[in-house]
């Protein structure tokens, strides 16, 4: 605490007047600040709140600080009033007045009764144990008040900032949560029946607990700004709020998806029935074709055609039942799964039909090739050649008789092609494909 050396120089009249003017301005500034703190909305809320945790502890300290601030201010105002009275005794102050004023303005002349006891729980205060009073210079008293004011205002502003930011946001989120809960209930998303319903229940409890904690212990949700000395430097901690807001958004998207299912469920069910019906018809066609192939084609492997999977029809019936019972939350994943399975089933049926009818396609290609070469040799006037007639008849009997041995028939067609090529003067006969002229250009 900085006092004035009693042996120091005595202030002259002008110095006294300047000191009194400065102290008067400080008095007005301090009084204005204290009144503003007294009327601060955060302080009034702290006085009326049922506080817990760190906020309760810090508010008890801050209340003591505010009370001590007024005690210090009263002592400061009394000392300033006394100094003004001494200065006002006479226009030209005597040396005795100037000595008294110097001691009052610079020395530890302000005694605050009970200050040592009052500062016991105030951070930064330095009351001595067992002392009933404490003495200050006016400058030291101003410094002490400034320190107490800054720490008190910091606590009040922090609590007020949290109360101003978080409860209102929590209430808005809770209102949105209630709307989502009603919407979820309308589509059958309920706790214990759907994960989104469980999420909504958890978010509801978390928000209620969060609001209660924010109201009773706001400083637990305050993050001070590192290195900041300004009162109220920091921000509200919204970590829990932000996490629950994101969780609610995820649930809302899931509910929207379920709503979409409700709106287009009938069309999706119709499409599913059509896909499965087409798959069944394709498999039936493949089974019929297999019988035809086995009857008409010899010495070939024909794959077995399986029947339609009954499990898909059962799941389709279950989906229709879910729709009748408005169990949209169960219908949604079932439709997604069924749509993929139905597409896969139709593809499998088409592949089965292609695999089964492959021998018939080979026979048709051989028939077309044989007739194309016959037409070609006819254009060149060689249709009645005995060798060609003999080989054509042999190949045709094989291709148009049942069962047809494709390997033998293909060799017969190739023999006819070679004979025709030799007669036409062709240098090369391609083993596969349609007939070609000697210049390599095909004829239609």
From TrEMBL:
Q: Which residues form a coiled coil?
A: 248-282
Alphabetical keyword list = Coiled coil
Q: Provide the residue span(s) of the region labelled Disordered.
A: 425-444
**Name this protein carries in UniProt:** Uncharacterized protein
Provide the species name. Streptomyces spiralis
């Amino acid at each position: 605490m900085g006092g004035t050396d009693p042996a120091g120089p005595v202030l002259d009249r002008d110095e006294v007047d300047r000191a009194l003017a400065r102290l008067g301005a400080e008095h007005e500034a301090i009084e204005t600040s204290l009144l503003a703190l007294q009327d601060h909305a955060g302080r009034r809320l702290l006085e009326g709140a049922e506080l817990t945790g760190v906020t309760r502890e810090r508010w008890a300290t801050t209340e003591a600080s505010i009370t001590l601030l007024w005690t210090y201010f009263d002592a400061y105002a009394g000392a300033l009033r006394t100094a003004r009275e001494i200065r006002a005794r006479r226009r030209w102050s005597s040396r005795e007045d100037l000595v008294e004023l110097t001691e009052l303005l610079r020395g530890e002349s302000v005694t605050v009764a009970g200050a040592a006891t009052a500062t016991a729980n105030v951070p930064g205060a330095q009351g001595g144990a067992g002392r009933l009073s404490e003495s200050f210079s006016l400058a030291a008293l101003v410094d002490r008040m400034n320190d107490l004011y800054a720490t008190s205002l910091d606590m009040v502003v922090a609590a007020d900032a949290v109360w101003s930011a978080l409860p209102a946001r929590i209430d808005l989120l809770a209102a949105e949560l209630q709307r989502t809960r009603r919407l979820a209930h309308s589509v059958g998303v309920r706790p214990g029946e759907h994960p989104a319903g469980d999420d909504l229940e958890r978010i509801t409890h978390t928000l209620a607990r969060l609001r209660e904690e924010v109201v009773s212990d706001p400083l637990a949700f305050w993050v001070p700004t590192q290195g900041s000395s300004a009162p109220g430097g920091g921000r509200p901690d919204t970590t829990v709020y932000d996490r629950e807001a994101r969780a609610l958004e995820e649930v809302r998207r899931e509910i929207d998806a379920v709503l979409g299912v409700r709106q287009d469920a009938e069309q999706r069910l119709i499409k599913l029935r059509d896909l499965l019906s087409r798959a069944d018809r394709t498999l039936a066609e493949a089974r019929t074709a297999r019988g035809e192939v086995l009857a008409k084609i010899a010495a070939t492997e024909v794959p077995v055609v399986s029947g339609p999977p009954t499990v898909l029809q059962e799941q389709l019936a279950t989906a229709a039942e879910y729709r009748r019972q408005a169990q949209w939350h169960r219908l949604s994943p079932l439709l997604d799964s069924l749509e993929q399975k139905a597409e896969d089933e139709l593809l499998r049926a088409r592949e089965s039909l292609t695999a089964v009818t492959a021998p018939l396609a080979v026979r048709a290609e051989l028939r077309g090739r044989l007739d194309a070469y016959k037409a070609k040799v006819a254009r060149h006037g060689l249709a009645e050649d005995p060798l060609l007639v003999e080989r054509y008849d042999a190949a045709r009997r094989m291709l148009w008789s049942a069962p047809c041995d494709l390997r033998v028939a293909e060799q017969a067609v190739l023999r006819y092609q070679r004979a025709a090529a030799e007669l036409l003067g062709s240098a090369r006969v391609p083993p596969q494909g349609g007939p070609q002229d000697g210049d390599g250009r095909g004829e239609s």
